[in-house]
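Illustration: RNA helicase.
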Amino acid sequence: MPKNPHPPRGGAAKKPAPPQEDTSYIVFGNGKDKKGKKAEGSSKPNDDTKGKGKGKEPANQGSSKSAGKAPTSQAEDAPKRPDTRTLIGGASWTGKLPVNLLSEHCQKQKWGKPDYRQHKEGDSFAAHVVLSKTNPKTQETLTLPPFKMPPELVELARQPTAVEARHFAAAYTLFRVASAKNMHMMMPPTYKELWKGVFTDLKKKDEKEGKAWMYEADPFLAYQEREKAKEVAAKEREKKAKEREQAKKDVQPGMTGRFPGGQYGPDGNRLKGWTRVPKIELGKRTRNEVERLIRRDAVWNPHNMHMDPKAQSQIINEVAELGFRKSHVEEAAEICKDREEIIEWLLIHVPEDDLPSWSLPEGYVAGVSMASSNLKREGAIKRLATAGYAIELCEEAYDGQGGDEGKAAAFLQAHLLRPTEDEKDIAQELADLTLSEGEEVDQWEEEQMSLEAIYDGLYERPSPSLCRIRMDIKHLGKRLVFQARKPFGPYPSVLPIITIEAIIPAYIRLSIIRKALVHAESNFIGAPMLYDIVDWIQQNASAIFKNPGRLTDVSSGLAVADHQTLNHALRGNIGQARHRRPINWEPGTLASQKILSQWQEQQATPAQQKMMSSRQSLPAWKLRDRIVQVVNQSQVCIVSGETGSGKSTQSVQFILDDLIQRQLGEAANIICTQPRRISALGLADRVAEERCSQVGDEVGYIIRGESKQKPGVTKITFVTTGVLLRRLQISGGSSDDVVAALTDVSHVVVDEVHERSLDTDFLLVLLRDILRRRKDFKVILMSATLDADVFEAYFKVVGPVGRVEIEGRTHSVHDYYMDDVVHLTRFGGKKSEDFGDEEDKPVSTSLRSVGFGINYDLIAETVRHIDRQLGMKDGGVLIFLPGTMEIERTLQALRQFPNLHTLPLHASLLPTEQKRVFPPAPPGKRKVVAATNVAETSITIEDIVAVIDTGRVKETSYDPQNNMVRLAETWASRAACKQRRGRAGRVRAGDCYKLYTRNAEAKMMERPDPEIRRVPLEQLCLSVKAMGVQNVSAFLAGALTPPESTAVEGAINMLGQIGAIEDNELTALGRHISMIPADLRLSKLLVYGATFGCLEAALTIASVLTARSPFLSPRERDEETRNEFNRIRSSFSNSQSDLLVDLRAYEQWSALRSKGTSSRDLRSWCQDNKLSSQTLFDVASNRSQYLSSLKEISFIPSSYSSSNPSTHSTYNVHNSNDPLLRALIAGSFNPQIARIQLPEKKFTAGVSGAVERDPEARTIQYFNQENGRVFVHPSSTLFDAAQNLPSSAKFVAYFSKLKTSKVFVRELTPFNAYGLLMFAGRIQVDTLGRGLVVDEWIRLRGWARIGVLVSRLRGMLDKVLERKVRDPGWEVDGQEAEVVRVVRRLVEWDGLDN
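Result:
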């Protein structure tokens, strides 16, 4: 210690002070009797005391004094050991000690208790402190490295006692985390001097050496940032090392390491591997315009990163060796953050005649002016924008307030606080406040004097009305600066005008400002408040960094928007996040009594009694009391039941009736999920009918795009699983929000849980979490198969799981297998009216004639056999098929029978079309329904008496290693076939005709793999991220059947590539596409379409890809038929794209439909043009659903209508721009891109000389990143005709990829190099001057300067897109519109001047 903080111990002082000695005896006696043991052991304390004395006096002096005293004399005469306060602060000190101050500081900051680690060094002690902090939500504890003493303090830190060592360590640690505060004023004199002297000097030295991070107010945030920065730096180093290694591989012998004047070895090895890659060109006029934009708007080193001086010097030398002037390189190094950016800056800013020749094309002439204005207006606008306000807002405010910067700042702040208020009202209020100035005593000056005394060197006052305080918070090594401007009006009755200057995103800066002002408005008005605001920001900034809040809260400062649009968006958000009233479980409320009374009256009606008798015949009715008892006693229960048992229709009614009878009707709110829309619709109709009510009253439904229910009135709501997931997803993000989203729901019934769909498994994870936190919440799982063990084990962690098993109906079903069917139908492989010949054929011969695939003639003959067997009896036939194409072919085969009423049933049909399967057939006809597996469960077609089961299903399988999806027709599981069979016995004994053998059935899987193991997980992972989950892998590991880790990792990587996730956080684009119920690539296309003025085209393309191409590919494979089909297709569009051909075909069909063309003429037109009328209607239905989704997320106005051009505004101005559409498709499908490799050019002699021949289609090769060479699918327009490939096309985007004998790509769209550069993956500039690399695998040859221009322009476009996605109501104008216009021209003209 530098000074003696207390009276000496262990010997007489040099100048004895009797009063102090007497006082110490009196104050610090321990009040205990002296015992013999203590007296005997007094020599030991005396020895310790001597040791302590050494630390407080010169060594020789202390030694002589201690040596001159006899032990007995010391024991008797020495003063008693002082207490800690006197030991640390001296006898007169009554204040707090360093340990107490540090503890209080930690407690105030909500950190853990300081942990003191100490050790003994000879006769002295040393200590250091370890701080920790526990996250209250995750309970994760972050422990910092010890605050060890720097070399300058090691000697001072050695103390004679452990107590003193702890206090010294506490003082130093407190300085490290609170050096900007005047904490030393509360410390003992010794530590006060240390704080102002040695500690402060040490801090100044550290700051000069770039170690300012050591003195951050929030050491935990600083530690996390440094660790993250280290990780990023390590990755960057690794990346640079790989680049250098690759460069070495490319540089062959004969190529020098220096490139002055562009001189390489004579063999030109610099371009090895780059000679055959596509080349990018840039017209002179276009190049000049791009350069002008970049010089004007480009931002260099946006985060103000500083290079290490040693590394900077090395980089300067390296770059200078490339041929740049060293003075230019040094200038660039002061501005830029790394080597790559330095070279880019030089290539843009160095005059052309001073650039190395390797960086320019031959004959390059640019001559771009660097002139820029630095007027007062621009300076003021830039200062206003430092707070985070958008530049255009600052311009508007500055000009609107007559060029007064202070008034403009006040206007912007008022607009941020009150975004819905009219700008004219804000301006008038500001004018009124200006007039009222000077009416009261000005307290501004008094507060400024106080602030200057408190903050000392951290405070500055540029003008009388402005002050700046460098706060005790740092980001990227720089302090956040708080600036306060004297308000217009009487301060402190009016809030000051504040800004935060920091290298953090604008919306976070605005969020801090807004939250601080809201807090000040509620707590500080009427008293000087600047100190309190600064203190509040310092305490809360860290939390705001991590959770800035909703973008809409600060959107008024981020973008210029029409007030009506902004108000609508705000109202929409308020509506989405509306507070749901918790359930009132008090019995006998007025509402519950009213519901009970109405229910009792209803039970007495004849219609209800008749319906009750029908319900009582179901097997579920017998277990009514058991079901109710189990539901009431368990949070989770499983109801298993065979098909026809009534579990889906009756269980929910039993629960509701029980609640009503117990006078809890008001509390009842039951949601029942169904895997398909038709199931939700059918069950809602059936249950409403059984309760003698209308759908939408007591019983309702919600499906995508359609809803019938009344809040507070509807007690049972049937929904698709996706609808309930969406409700949870938009709840707000956190786990608390997810729980709150169902706070008004009493029961959730998950039906058909055995199907194990992706949505169902995801929902079960969320429901299990809700059950843990809400004990009054009930979940009922309903399964058609008796495999409840796996679900019981999953939910056991919540509590006991109840189980109820319901027997099915007793109607018998007779099975006929393939050999039986062939025998009954006398089928011989082809249709014949004379079956006499077939009777003598052996069954084995007939079976061979059936073949291995689905035989539609056999299906037709089986239907005819069933019809003959039934005769005059009623009853329908249900045929199970794998897909819609098989349904169409089956219905076509059945058209030969005039007495059949044939209907399709699959998920793509509109709800009204799906409902056509339920009513009886017209008189004299027999109903035949051809269905996919949607008819297996949930829905009941009452009059079915015979089932024809092909035993086939179309199932998706996914290989995460190769990122390959296969949709293949395969055998259904035995469980699924059992469900299909049960459909024949719903009303009476029936028959099941199985078009497969008993041996095939024995080899079927017991049940299918859960969908979570069979499909790509991008959509699921995005949904999980949208709900605020940070660790997606850990979350999905809690699923009933966790997916493969490689599949999750691949999905996260894909989300990063498409721009939905950045730095493990959801981007604005990611948040939007997570809310659109479509494939992620299609969602991105819809967002791009709305942004770039081709919304209708994007809607149609997305809808076609959701359904399928409307063109009916001919079954005949002869060349003449194929050529005719290709001719018809190409007649719709010469834009050389599968998707654009489909788009133009749909547009022509839609135009005919809008003109009122009759249905017959429309069908005839479709037939002539080889188009499927049903598919075109499916596309129209999908378009409506996607349009509704875009309106729901407020991406387009709710008034928008496809059929009303007056509502289109700028959304469709580029619908016919084919090059732009191709580029947007490529950007949406990225990384599903293949490179086109044309064969060597061949020429034919002609009259005017040699003419280049078009390459044959089979000689064109395609390569992607994952599979190498891929092949065009025969269904593509590019398969046969190479002339369908645009001359500028260098790449193709594909939507799907499948593997059979080869890897085929489908739904192809060719596009040029600028489409790739502007809308696809990440661009890297090859600093050896060879060109660009996109997504680390696609090379584009081009000169270095052009490469940098394109890369920088892409960055500017990305910012425009980000803002547009963040604020859909923003009209792209001004400088941003210029960027979009230049990009559009580049894509349209492939970089050339038009």
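Reading the tokens back as a structure: The two ends are 80 Å apart (CA to CA).
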